[in-house]
Amino acid sequence: MSTLSKRKRIFLVIIVCITGIFQTGCAFKDINKRAFVAGIGIDPGEDDDEKYKVTLKIAIPIGSLKQAKGPTYSYLSYEGETIGESIRMLETHIDKTLEFGHAKILVINEKLLSDDLGQFMDYFTRRGDLQLIAWVAAGRPSAEQVLKTEPETESPASVALFNFFDDSGTESPYITTTFLFQFRRDFFAIGLDSVLPLVEASENGKELIINNSLVVKDKQDPLELTPVETKDYNSLASGMVGFSYKVKHGDLTLLLNIDTVKMNYKIITEQGSPPRVDMNVKMIGIIGESSTDLAFKNLKKYNEYASKAMEKKVVKLLTILQENELDPFGFGLRYRATRLSNKNTISKWNSMYPNLEFDVTVDVELKSTGAIE
Amino acid sequence: MTKKSQGEPTPPDLMVELAGKLKPSSDVQQIPLQIEEKQAFLLYLKTVVDGLQLQNIVIKPFFELSSERHFEAYVNSLPNKVKMPAKEELLIELTKGNVLLVIQDRFVLLDLRKVNSDTVLQTTIEPTIHGPQLALSESLETNINLIRQRYHDSSLKIETMQLSDQSHRSIAILYDEKVVKKSILKAVKKKLNQLDTPLVQSSGDFQLYLTDKKFTLFPNTIITERPDRIIYNLTGGKVVLLVDGSPHSIVLPVVFFDFLVSMEDVYHAFWIAKLTILLRYIALVICITLPGLYVAVTSYSPEVFRTELALTVAGSRIGVPYPSFIEVLFMLVFIELLTEASIRLPKAISATATTVGGLILGTAVTEAALASNIMIIVVSLVAISTFVIPVNEMSYSMRISRLFLLGYASLFGLAGVILGFLGIIIYLVNRESFGEPYLRIVAKNREEEAKGDNK
């Protein structure tokens, strides 16, 4: 090889190396060329021909966080036959790539919940970049309005809706938290119904209220739980604490601050007696407020009063659910799991559930009267 | 020797021959000593010999002692007397500062060298707070003295040999006979005997000649200036090489984790030492992976960030004209320039360089939207982490490794970072330092420990 060709070759290698430095992989897309979808809302189509209306809440990045007054969002809506189709079309409405990696909230109009949920849920569980740890919520009056609500307390570069659910902001037993994976699993599980938080947008578009929840069952109108029922459900099913219970006994009114709730139950089907659920609830807390002076030595008495009052509340919640043939606690699933399975198991349970008796024992353990004697 | 009865005495033939070879250097001194019946000849190079010592040890007694026989006996008992080398090496010995003395046809070589580089230096490369503050000197004998004075054990063996290159430098091999691994010692000696190098200047280039591979990224030996690190490694069974004229010693063999040991660890309480070691490993990971991670996460998988961070990063990149990896590359080159500049510049100016470069340029770059704020944080963090690695050579290696990871990240995203990291680990596992696995984890279970290294 002559020296010249060797030089040429070295020169070529250098050129290739230098140009190679400025190449990237195929999926390379700079972060400022992506539009971060913060939430997805689904409403029934306003146009009669179209089935769904998809709304995307897009968070706009802020250059200087210190000078920003609040978060800025942009909203995109499209009506289409399917959700996938609508999102594809929405990609043509924006100059940046839609990035679903941060779409952590999925708001479904409450009217859609009585529809065939399984079908449109499919899209979200299949899509790889949409994370299954997204939260699912029902929206009222519409998903679009819920997404478009921008609370005044929302700080720049943070999404208020996330703070409700991720326990880094407010923590309350009135707020039900349902993940997408959980919702889908509960939805398809036989003997268990899923519960969704209901997000209400105030009329002035400045406030979000989340304290109700909906028990959803396929092809059936959802049952709305009142805030108190939601709280009772959350504390029993997921042990959520940080709430107060009011107990009345004669003149005495006590407000209990409960910090631990433990619940377990057994389904008892014995020959000769009607099937029943034995539920034991243990609550530990202190007295937070009282109408009269309390004595520490009477703590046992207060425990009894509280236990009686609690039992009533729990039985009431269970009865409401039973009357509507809804089962968010998953009694049916437990029954199926603990009985010898055959093809009749579930139909047997379905006929048994409306007549099920609830035997609830609540054991309240108050640690103090809440005052120093 | 032919003697004339009177007038100038004639020096022996060998001495004339040697002097001829050394000419026309102006510092060659060939001095006849003569009084009455006594006669002797001196041959030496004036510039490398301590004249005062020569005067006191050789010349004065010559005139004081009564006869040549007395003088010869005196000279033979001098501690400066060196073993007579072969004729070919005599010239080298003379250039080292030895004095050739001829009495009564007998040749004697005396070591009266003058070394001006034997001041013990302050530690500059690996300073510690609690450890010894003095490093080595640039003279081999002083260095051996420093080490001997810290390690009084007869099992410490010091073998000196002379390199066959142009500089004919002396080197010393130090090891503790009780703990050194014989196979390594043998390998090192073999390597030293086979060395065929044109010129050795210092420990730095010498250690490169000791490695077989030409294209290496990670150092195969540790170069250290700290006597305490030398002792620490000697007791650990390692071999230490000292090169005359270099204030650094070479410690071998090494494993990767040796480069993350600072002598400070020995001087601190248990938990403090453990915390600083942990910090060092965190810094290591940061300095290798962070530039790559930044590119991979911002340009391939921003879902890894928290939403708030993703929005902030996206916001800080508004208006940055180049893709993230160019931005990183640009800033890394910038910080490398800054580091290089502050090393090369005189100490008085280097502070200015870092201020101008680091503070003013850094701010201006973000103001001009050439790089994002987050990028400046990333680059500064990387630079600081690099300085945490205690042994300088390893931090150089890390500076190159992270460019490699950056390349992988800009091609394959997060998976590329993992892949590249795996690649580095595979490369390290594949390496050996004088027969010892490079990425060997020191911790062993008791059974293995008992078995030892004898396979």
From TrEMBL, chain A:
Keyword Signal in record: yes
Family, as annotated: Belongs to the GerABKC lipoprotein family.
Name this polypeptide is given: Spore germination protein A3
Occurrences of domain Spore germination GerAC-like C-terminal (ranges): 224-370
Localization annotation: Membrane
GO cellular component: membrane
NCBIfam families tied to this protein: spore_ger_x_C
The organism's taxonomic lineage, starting at the top: Bacteria, Bacillati, Bacillota, Bacilli, Bacillales
One matching Pfam family: Spore_GerAC
Segments forming domain Spore germination protein N-terminal: 29-200
Keyword line: Germination, Lipoprotein, Membrane, Palmitate, Signal
Membrane-related topology note: Lipid-anchor
Residue ranges crossing the lipid bilayer per the database entry: none
PANTHER family named in the record: SPORE GERMINATION PROTEIN B3
Biological process terms in GO annotation: spore germination
Automatic annotation (TrEMBL), chain B:
GO biological process: spore germination
A Pfam family that the UniProt record links to this protein: GerA
Domain of life: Bacteria
InterPro entries: Spore_Ger (IPR004995), UPF0353/GerABKA_families (IPR050768)
One CC-aspect GO term: membrane
Transmembrane segments: 278-300, 320-338, 345-364, 370-391, 403-429
Key words of the record: Membrane, Transmembrane, Transmembrane helix
UniProt record similarity statement: Belongs to the GerABKA family.
Protein name per its UniProtKB record: Spore germination protein B1
Source organism: Filibacter tadaridae
